[in-house]
Amino acid sequence: MQNIEAYQTSFINHLKEFTVNKEPKNLYQPINYILNLGGKRLRPVLTLMTAEIFGGNVNNAMNAALSVEVFHNFSLVHDDIMDDAPLRRGKATVHEKWDINTGILSGDAMLIMAYQLFENYKPSTFLALAKLFSKTALEVCEGQQYDVDFETRSDVTISEYLKMIAYKTAVLVGAAMKMGAIVADASEEDQNAIYDFGRYLGIAFQLQDDYLDAFGNPETFGKQVGGDIIENKKTYLYLKALEFLGTSERLQLEDLFAKNFEDNTEKIKTVKQFFISSGSAEATQREIENYTLKAFLILENLNISASKKMQLEDFGNSLMTRNV
Questions:
Q1: Which of 253, 241, 249 is nearest to 280 (CA)?
Q2: Which of 121, 127, 93, 90 is nearest to 107 (CA)?
Q3: Which residue, 42, 12, 38, is CA-closest to 90?
Q4: Among 198, 233, 312, 319, which residue's CB has the most CB atoms within a 10 Å radius?
């Protein structure tokens, strides 16, 4: 198995061949723009890595990996429109750089292009990839709707939040890994197991993201620390704090999340103190460990060598100890 940087380099080279200038330019330029904005390329790397783990050819998995990345970025283009977000990875979002109509249409084209990439595979592989993709894409939409719904609800439960992040984030991580297994002609048992491994790791990854949003190092996190607090997002940290706090402090926290402030410095500081004093911060770290361990337990039943299992475990640990 190659290291992460090698997979990233191979994928980026393939991406460059994909993002060529085509007409009409106002449709394809925004697509090339968002695909070349950078990012960790986590999902396509997982597809390539999984294909190789199950004895497949990395180059043969490249179009499946590209499909995952095109779909992921399609969802970002439309999410940014819904959130009226001005920036993505430090650069202007597509709808800001062009306009909303361009963002909608270019995003639609990206979804179609993601499906088209499966046409490079034999019929049985095409069918398996397309079925998984359709199921996953719909779940991502459901997760996004849950997220939108939660903004106006004051009764969101922990289980509802975990379901939302599973659909919005984790199922695509699981699907990325399963696609690699499908391309490598792994057994159905191994395909399903690696999907669950990825899904559990995806939930842990999102919980870690929630934690870093509040407690990450501003110099390494890459986003504004406290962004979720400013936006009054009902994250795992927030919901656990409500569960643990006494009545008076719980009402204070709810009141802070019901308001918007011009200067959020004091709000962020107070909310973080509630997260720590209530035990919510510690509980969130435990839950990250819990889902990571769930993922690692699945590795025991995979029909791969012990060294490959160790490489997957090392990769999972690297995700959970990140500070970016």
A1: 241
A2: 93
A3: 38
A4: 198
pTM of the model as a whole: 0.93
CA 176 – CA 110 distance, rounded (Å)? 17
Q: Is 239 exposed, middle or buried (0-12, 13-18, 19+ CB in 10 A)?
A: buried
Q: How far apart are CA 61 and CA 82, in angstroms?
A: 32
Helix, coil or strand: residue 88? strand
CA–CA separation, 133 and 172 (whole Å): 9
Nearest to 199 by CA among 178, 173, 162, 164: 173
Distance CA 119, CA 148 (A): 34
pLDDT digits (tens, 9 = 90+) for 148-191: 999 889 899 999 999 999 999 999 999 999 999 999 999 999 99
**Residue reference for tokens 């106002």:** 26
* Residue 42 to residue 316: CA distance in whole angstroms: 12
